[in-house]
DNA sequence: TGGTAAACGAGACGGTACGTCGCGTCTTTTC
DNA sequence: GAAAAGACGCGACGTACCGTCTCGTTTACCA
């Protein structure tokens, strides 16, 4: 990610020892910045506006001008802190201003049924078009600058994996079956995301077959 | 895909007349179009130019103006025959003017070994960055105009599925095992494309595990 | 003046042997241009808009964006034909889309009285501020690119010189006096323009003195 | 308007106190300002920078940011003491940090000869372009903010008038002739400034004629 | 001699205009 | 009637200055 060191410093400062940051020893050598400090309000407004404009139907407005306008901020302020649209999107998503509208599966005790219900839900979501558009938009927007795979993965893949994962792990314990949970999660996520990304319609049969194939009944 | 019917009809016609020739006497059985016929040379030049501009590093030039300029053709000529950039790209890829730098697996008789070799090859390709960039670019370019996904699938998914598919089917017959070939192909393709699209690194272990999990040894 | 040769050719073509053009022998070698010809309507709209925006009070809008907007034309169209704002202004003025709001003297037979009345009129005009603002604006706008003295002279100086000149020449003949008419015109024009440009107030005494000094009574 | 800022500051202070303020106990007209006094060094640096940036060729840099940068000063410091760019320019010129490259006439005893020599010198200066450009620039810069003209007159007209004036007054006394010196100065200045402003070329004949016409030989 | 208030540098802020690029459409002449 | 040439309205791009606004840091005065 091509963030300037200044930006990096600024952001991580209030957040403190965030995320997977191991090397945070740089406390000495005061990072005392001179001049007026950047407006935290502007920063948030920009990231929020970006998140909002990623919503289905708004996507056409996802321009630097659109973001600035909706945030009530000057274009220059956006450019001052993020060198490109991709960077703004990445940070907006990273800060949680936008989440994929994909729910996770319930837990009624019957794993197969839960997954089936869930995938029907996903199908409905995909058919609405919003999720696909958003996913494609993300890939498209980010593709222009860098590959930035980790980011997209963090936004697109991880949440889905997490949701299906927690359900599977619960089942794995209660069932006592020897499921390769990790692999199943991975495959499940891949299949679903392909369908979301490419707007593929999941037929009833395909759903049943897929579940059966991935999680053989005992 | 949104190809005009005229385009479809027209295209197959001169292709029969083949290669470099212009004034062949295909007159008979003709649907007799009046006026100057469309230039086959222009068509090829456009598709070739599109393919060339999709090459990694050139992607920024993939504009309608860039295509027309490189093809030595007027913009109108491009628009006359393809309603959108997405359609040009799709046809360019379809006609082989651009190929995803993703080879298929060899057939040495040992399915597991072949797949392992192949996936190491893919990993190398992914690490080069070109494939990921191109795949992302395709998604991005196509998403802007045609979010329906069939298009992207045709360009991105199908070729990979075909390559791994033919190897698997061959194995399926020689092995006589009851493999759900279709499902395996689908899953294989999904996993690989996810990795390509998001630049995920495939470790040796991951490759071995995945193959073993998908195609259990007899 | 930095007009492109193409623009020059285009403009002078319909105008025929305009202005002081002596070398117009280039008729042969048909300048047949290809592609869509430039829109005469746009050209006129731009020049008219420019003239209108030079009017007192509107001057703040005299931006390339303002001109394009008022002309109902895209910015690019303005830039396509004139490389800078100064060039647009020069041509707008040159084509008569704007004239200095300075009247000429009447002819009642009494030269001194006529001039006095006229200068009082001018004083009123100057006090309104419009004329000064416009003159300064012209100088300022044109100064940024080139010196372009001839143009400003043509717009600012010549009309005034002409008006006072014709009155003086008429008087010169009827009086039979040996007036150095040319010199007087020159001086008169200079004095008046200095006052216009710098918003100098002309007092009654100054007017009388000046007229008496320039045109001694017989 | 073109009062020095210090005067301005001192003036507005009591005015502010008079504006219906309740706490105004400092009635005893104390001009004593508290806090850090303004930096004389900054003031000079700003005026010098302004003068330097008015030099021919540099004119495009004559922005508030440019001035501040070259003076090694913050923008706010400039704005604190001068309300507009015009004021800075006026004071810079007034303090002699920039002089129009227009010399005055020598005094060899022969008035006509002195003037002729001087005007040839001016012609050379005008042809170089620098003087015209600078004069136009001044008009342009000042016109944008202060169209009242006194400012421009003070900068542009007065210096020239003074130079030619002192030579003429000297001559007037030694000659004893009844010259209307004031008028002659005015006319001379007008003619010359018109030529400078509009880059008009003064021919040998024109110079001789003009001098002869303005100052008839005894 | 230490407080304090104004001036200082730095530089971010909301704006407006700049000049350019690409879009998809249009209007010419040429083939 | 297709093709090249290229102008058109549109809208976003990224940059430059504008004049204003915090910040933390001097620095001269007055107590």
TrEMBL record, chains A, B, C, D:
Q: Which Pfam family would be a valid example here? A: TetR_C_11
MF terms (GO), sorted A to Z: DNA-binding transcription factor activity; transcription cis-regulatory region binding
What are the alphabetically sorted keywords of the record?
DNA-binding, Transcription, Transcription regulation
Has keyword Nuclease? no
Domain of life, per UniProt, equals Bacteria
Give me the ranges of the annotated region Disordered.
1-42
Ranges of residues in domain HTH tetR-type:
40-100
Q: Which residues bind DNA?
A: 63-82
Compositional bias ranges of the Basic and acidic residues kind? 1-13
Protein name (database record): AcrR family transcriptional regulator
């Amino acid at each position: 990610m091509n963030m300037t060191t200044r930006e990096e410093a600024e952001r991580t400062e209030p957040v403190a020892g965030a995320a997977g940051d191991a090397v945070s020893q740089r406390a000495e050598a005061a990072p005392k910045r001179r001049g007026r400090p950047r407006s935290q309000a502007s920063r948030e407004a920009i990231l929020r506006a970006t998140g909002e404009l990623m919503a289905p139907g708004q996507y056409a407005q996802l321009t630097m001008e659109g973001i600035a306008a909706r945030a009530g901020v000057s274009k220059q302020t956006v450019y001052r802190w993020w060198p490109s649209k991709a960077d703004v999107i990445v940070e907006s998503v990273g800060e949680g201003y936008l989440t994929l509208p994909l729910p996770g599966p319930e837990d009624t005790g019957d794993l197969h049924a839960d997954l089936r219900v869930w995938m029907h839900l996903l199908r409905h979501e995909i058919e609405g078009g919003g999720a696909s558009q958003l996913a494609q938009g993300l890939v498209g927007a980010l593709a222009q600058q860098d590959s930035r795979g980790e980011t997209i993965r963090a936004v697109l893949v991880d949440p889905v994996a997490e949701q299906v994962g927690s359900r599977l792990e619960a089942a794995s314990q209660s069932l006592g079956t020897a499921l390769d949970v990790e692999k199943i999660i991975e495959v499940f996520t891949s299949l679903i995301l392909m369908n979301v990304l490419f707007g593929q319609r999941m037929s009833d049969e395909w759903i049943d077959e897929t579940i059966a194939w991935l999680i053989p009944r005992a």
